[in-house]
Amino acid sequence: MPTVGVKRDSLFKALGKTYSDEEFQTLCFAFGLELDEVTTEKQMISKEQGAEQSVGASEEIIYRIDIPANRYDLLCLEGIVTGLLIFLEKIPAPRYKKIHLKPNDRQTIRVTETCQQIRPFIVGAILRGVTLTKESYDSFIDLQDKLHQNICRKRSLVSIGTHDLDTIKGPFTYDAKPPQEIRFKPLNQDKEYNGLEIMELYAHHAQLKQYLPIIRDSAVFPVVYDSKGTILSLPPIINSDHSKITLNTRNIFIEATTTDLTKAEIVLDTLVCAFSQYCKEKFTVEPIGVLWKSKTSSGDASYPKLSYRDVEISSKEAVNYVGIDRSPEEVARLLSKMGLKTTVKGEDLLSVEIPPTRHDVIHPCDIYEDIAIAWGYNNIERTIPQTSTIGKEFPLNKLSDHLRLELAQAGFTEALTFSLCSREDVSGKLGWGFDEIPAVTISNPKTLEFQVARTCLLPGLLKTISANKKMPLPLKLFEVSDVVLKDKKSECGARNERRLCAVYCNKSAGFEIIHGLLDRVMQLLEVPWSIDKSKDGYYLEAAEDPTYFPQRCAKIIVHGQEIGKMGVLHPEVLQKFELHLPCSSLEINIERFL
């Protein structure tokens, strides 16, 4: 949950009413927010940097408010005030609109083909006739920072640049150039630097150093410049000092470069909706044309979108979900309090208008949630369900617990290993190529140890044994947990599978121990041994698997279907896991027994 700090006096002035701390906390809770802390600037600095750094800081009261992670429109004072005033029914929801211009009068951004190599998209907008105070200026900068840390994923997805339009001249160009060819004066610096020098300049900067890896190793850096060649920004690192906005800025040019166009549209809508109230003509935004061209296609788009969309829901279904009994007219009023203008169509149908500030509404359930918030969760009457049911354990978990108990009684120790592992753990170390493994890959792994979701339990147990070599022999471990496998038939492209894995490690391989454990498991599951290999029981069938020693591996067939393998592990596999004693293992899918 992001936390927004707002000055209490400024907040109450904008709301037109003074509240006690308890009253405001109650109001926040009713609106779905939480007043996390009442503090001062001096206390905040003292807590973060020490008492010495807080000398001269303001004693003005600051409210730190927790905002739901999906409500980007509430990440600044302006958004909170607008939302609360609509909730209190003091103002109607603002109507955001774009200024209609002739094509020749519209500012444009031309996107070059080379941008495809690094950050392929850009969006933009202009706020005209803006009047900023010190507080609104600080709020404007703070909202950008909150968005960067939240939906922008620390600028890796979207990077926002804001510029004084009167200091630059369109049309603008978004290009990607070698770092040596980029030269400008960064924000608040005294001299010009090229791209490589900027990387060195901010290598130890407290805030900016974390963004350098996004483009540092690229052959080209993204850059935005105007018709005169004046550089505006080097996204996602730093803006130019030439076009920085000040309290005297009247026309603000906003650009956002991105790798995810949808996220950039949300960010731009959020930013211009929050601060268009300071424009000479309130809640209006001047659009910008983006002209792009790639090797395969070209196009012309206009931003911001500021699109309104209508969603029709059943009032009866909505109140049944929430658990209240209200008429369609009352439900429409509740939704209008949450900024979702709603009208009644017919006896039961509601037409809900989703404004550009509410990108969090993507499903009717999101609308039902707003009804519950507006009504008040504490006001929902508690009732006894009409149908009496008895809770019971999930069958798969019940089976897993029974097997865990029996395996422990057989002398094996349970291990709980990581669900994520490296690519080598599930492929190369087990003798397989990674392309042969149905592994789900993590797109942005934090370390090399956690690159994929595990496709089998064996690597985790072998790593556990490797870390406990000093324990007395034999080492007998088991685990009953889920693995993750790619599955095109699944809705999300992957599925979980509950498996049982056991490993025996001693001076001899102990294949008979593992075989005996399999027989015990089958006895517990009431699956008989099939002498004639019929479909009425279980039997073993010779198999070749690079994980296991040649001619020491068997497939386990139950009711005519393969459920897993067992055998003596290959010496090369043991060596890759830094083990020097022979091991035998068993791994089966237990979901087939439900």
Automatic annotation (TrEMBL):
Cofactor: Mg(2+)
Gene Ontology CC, one term: phenylalanine-tRNA ligase complex
Protein's UniProt keywords contain NADP: no
GO biological process terms held by the UniProt record: phenylalanyl-tRNA aminoacylation
Alphabetized UniProt keyword annotations: Aminoacyl-tRNA synthetase, ATP-binding, Cytoplasm, Ligase, Magnesium, Metal-binding, Nucleotide-binding, Protein biosynthesis
Domain of life: Eukaryota
Primary localisation category: cytoplasm
Quaternary structure and partners: Tetramer of two alpha and two beta subunits.
Protein name as annotated: Phenylalanine--tRNA ligase beta subunit
Organism: Fopius arisanus
